[in-house]
Specification:
The complex is a heterodimer. By secondary structure, chain A is α/β, with parallel strands linked by helices. Helices cover 41% and strands 24% of the residues of chain A. Classes of the chains: A alpha/beta, B mainly alpha.
Chain lengths: 263, 352
């Protein structure tokens, strides 16, 4: 990244559940157009960190800045309005809707129709609906499931539901998309398809932050990585730097390895 | 892509919008009976209330136990403005809707901040308060004795003074109401509302302001109820507080559940089922149990409610839709999601 421009800044973010500190004093910056990974062993606080950034959980302390706007104690829909959308670890497609309706709902923020206009079905409402339908179709084509547009979302296979969530998250033209374990439960073929989609969208200027267990994917596509263990940041850097970070190796392979590394 | 492709997205059929006006136009010709007209005027008035409540219950996922209060606000606004002040009934209608809307905002804002079914409790309390006010503000409402002599409606000199004329007036309102609600469902707002049911957390994450839309639908449903109340007042020309008690709110709820809250047609079906069954009950109950008087209606509808919830939790409208779609299937074969799924399984989960 020659001209790195910070788009998201996480400052001393902390989350306590009673006496348990799930995320402790974590800070990092994400640059525009970057694929940024958050990794760590189970229970490291990755999803909690995501939930704080997207407003699902209120932070106990610390701040999140997005393009210099403070998003710390904003509601999820306000964070989406600012330009951050997300996908979910346990799929959250709108099960009662068709695939295209899911994506059209994703484009909610780009539309202006209000209740009265909708009820009277003013000509501009129909025009907007057509535009959004086209946008949604384009999003589906980008992830490669346009052929399933009119199926009920819940009937799609797991991998396609993941792609649908990405299409939905991209529909409102956000600046950053957060992916919570996008590869979980996918077969190698589906993972490859998903990686292609992510790389293609990054080329078009999207910034991605993702949590992932699949180290192969993380190391191959991320520009930079932050590593959490027990809620504490133990490393940050490019994939090469992370490979060589003794603390990270210890966290993943156990304390004996740490001794080995130190020796 | 253009306008006609939207139909595929909405997967809707216009069949109801064609059948309903025909039925309404033909009914008074086929059965020229003043009694039948009276019955169907009441069906129409209730359908209007249920229309708003269907949006509230089926789409916003909130239950109201106080819609009779909004219904009463409409009726008394119309009565007071047209009789006491001698202004046009149309002004009364609009004022009633505005008052109902403002009250809905005041009741809705604090309750929608809470998760769960607090609206049911808030509206139950509010309904009782309004009922008491109708009784106690005697100078304005006539108290328990009721309000007499409400004039009929006229439009540019055309008096809606016969049952036949009023029948058409009411059903024009019902039809407009259905189209209005359908339009909302087939828009950004409708998708936002349905998405809340699909996954509230994801709905939030794509930027849907959940509270705002729940509140808007609540206000809309209050205005529909108020409009229906105005139509009632000008039709019966005499109203009293008992028409707008907690029991009426519960009957509205029963109509919506019997009709089915997932489809806007459920409002008409539920209202028709309630009124027609009620009329049958009035005729046959004295024959079945000659020496028993009293409130059979509530016992009957209570049992019906329980049976509906057990055997048809989505009410009558999906059953009727099934019948209609059988007719339509002969023309268009729809690939159901299940078939697609089987194909995918057969092809090893791959999708072209």
């Amino acid at each position: 990244m020659s001209e790195a421009k910070i788009i998201l800044k996480v400052e001393n973010l902390t989350k306590q559940f009673g006496g348990v500190v799930a995320v402790s004093d974590v800070s990092f910056n994400v640059n525009k157009g970057e694929i940024f990974a958050v990794i760590g062993p189970n229970g490291a606080g990755k999803t909690t960190l995501f939930n704080m950034i997207t407003g699902v959980l209120p932070a106990s302390s610390g701040n999140v800045f997005f393009e210099d706007k403070n998003l710390t104690r904003k509601k999820p829909y306000q964070i989406a309005q600012a330009g951050i959308t997300r996908t979910f670890q346990n799929l959250e497609v709108f099960s009662n809707m068709s695939v295209i309706e899911n994506v059209m709902t994703g484009a909610h923020l780009t539309m202006k129709t209000n209740l009265l206009m909708a009820g009277l079905r003013l000509p501009m409402v129909t025009k907007e609906e057509v535009t959004i339908m086209e946008t949604a179709m384009a999003c589906l084509e980008r992830v490669g499931i346009a052929g399933l547009a009119h199926e009920l979302a819940i009937t799609l296979p797991y991998g396609n539901q993941r792609l649908l969530e990405i299409a939905r998250a991209a529909a409102s033209n956000p600046k950053v998309i957060l992916l919570d374990e996008p590869m979980a439960g996918l077969n190698p073929e589906e993972s490859r398809q998903l990686v292609d989609v992510i790389l293609k969208m990054r080329e078009e200027g999207m910034t991605f932050i993702f949590v992932e267990h699949d180290m192969e994917t993380v190391m191959s596509i991320s520009d930079r990585i932050v590593v959490l263990d027990n809620g504490v940041k133990i490393g940050e850097g490019t994939p090469e730097e992370i490979y060589q970070n003794p603390k990270v190796v210890a966290a993943y392979l156990g304390d004996e390895e740490e001794e080995y590394v130190n020796a | 892509m253009e306008k006609k492709d939207l139909k595929k997205v909405y997967h809707n059929s216009f069949i109801g919008l064609i059948i309903l006006p025909i039925l309404i136009a033909v009914l008074p010709v086929v059965i020229p009976s003043s009694y039948i007209l009276t019955v169907f005027i009441m069906v129409g008035i209730y359908a209007l209330v249920c229309n708003g409540m269907t949006m509230l219950i089926g789409y916003a996922g909130q239950i109201s136990l106080g819609h009779a209060a909004f219904y009463g606000i409409g009726a008394y606004s119309s009565a007071i403005i047209s009789t006491t002040y001698g202004l046009s009934p149309w002004i009364g209608m609009i004022v009633g809707m505005i008052i109902a809307g403002i009250i809905a905002i005041i009741v809705g804002i604090p309750t929608f901040k809470l998760k769960g079914h607090y609206l049911a409790l808030a509206t139950l309390g509010f309904g009782i308060i309004v009922f008491t006010l109708f009784k106690e503000f005697r100078e304005l409402t006539g108290g328990s004795n009721g309000f007499f002599g409400i004039p009929s409606i006229n439009l540019f000199g055309f008096e809606f003074n016969s049952d036949l004329r009023y029948f058409y007036l009411v059903w024009v309102f019902v039809f407009i109401g259905i189209i209005f609600s359908r339009n909302i469902i087939h828009s950004r707002i409708g998708r936002a509302l349905r998405s809340i049911e699909g996954s509230e957390i994801a709905s939030d994450a794509v930027g849907v302001n959940i509270m705002k839309y729940k509140l808007q639908v609540f206000v809309l449903s209050a205005m529909f109820a108020s409009l229906a109340g105005s139509l009632l007042a000008h039709y019966v020309s005499f109203i009293n507080p008992d028409l707008f008690g907690a029991m009426t709110s519960i009957y509205f709820l029963i109509m919506v559940i019997i009709g089915g809250s997932k489809s806007i047609w459920g409002s008409v079906i539920g209202a028709a089922a309630y009124v027609l069954l009620g009329e049958l009950l009035k005729h046959f109950m004295p024959i079945l149990l000659p020496n028993k008087g009293g409130e059979f209606e509530i016992v009957f509808f209570g049992i019906l409610l329980v049976v509906t919830l057990i055997y048809m939790p989505n009410g009558l409208s999906p059953q009727l839709e099934k019948i209609f779609s059988k007719f339509q299937k002969k023309k268009v074969t729809i690939e159901t999601p299940l078939q697609i799924n089987k194909k995918q399984i057969a092809s090893g989960g791959e999708n072209q």
